[in-house]
Every structure is written in structure tokens, then in C-alpha cells.
Design brief:
The chain is about 85% helix and about 0% strand. It is an all-alpha fold. The chain is elongated and about 65 Å long.
Length: about 110
């Protein structure tokens, strides 16, 4: 018969394994997304993606999308590079498990 402490340790082990699996799964998804952001077609259509996202949104959010589109249209290269760096960082952080507290807080 297992003691209560052994049961607790077993549950803790499973919990750590499940959290690690979830982190890795999200890391893989983010890695695919990061890969797609490094493709030339992403940079070529970046502002268009924002226009597509703005289409069909509630009227109350129009100002938010208009502000983002205006900001990005001024310097799309900076936003493309920033998006690429953030996406790649998140993928690597999730896959390797480094800087978890910092990454999760951000």
C-alpha cells in the first residue's frame, strides 16, 4: 500500500511532466509561427495582414486597428523585425525552458 507521501510525489511528477509537455507543445506551435515570420512573404504582406484583421471587427475597436495600421505603415520594417525577434525568442524559450519566469511574465 502506498503512503500518502508517495502518492503526493507521484502526482507532483506527473504534474511536472504535463506542464513540460504543454510548454513544449506551445513551443512547437510558436516555432512554426516564428518560421513563417522569417519568410519574405510575411514582410511583403505585413500591413495587409493588419488590414485583414481589422475587417469585420466591432466599430468600437476601429480606432485601435487604425492606430496600429498607421504606426506600422510608417516603419513596417521595424515592426516586421520586432515581430520576428519576439516570435523566435518565445519559441526558443518555450522549447528549451530558459528564462521561464521572465518569459511568462512578459
Amino acid at each position: 500500500m502506498r503512503t500518502q507521501e508517495q502518492n503526493h510525489e507521484r502526482r507532483a511528477t506527473w504534474s511536472v511532466a504535463l506542464v513540460g509537455a504543454a510548454r513544449t507543445a506551445f513551443g512547437v506551435i510558436w516555432a512554426v509561427n516564428a518560421y513563417l515570420t522569417w519568410r519574405p512573404s510575411f514582410a511583403a504582406h505585413y500591413v495587409g495582414y493588419l488590414h485583414n484583421a481589422a475587417r469585420g471587427q466591432p466599430h468600437a475597436l476601429a480606432w485601435w486597428f487604425d492606430a496600429w495600421i498607421a504606426a506600422v505603415a510608417r516603419a513596417p520594417e521595424a515592426f516586421v523585425l520586432g515581430t520576428r525577434i519576439v516570435e523566435t525568442y518565445l519559441a526558443l524559450a518555450l522549447l528549451t525552458g530558459f528564462a521561464r519566469r521572465l518569459t511568462y511574465a512578459l
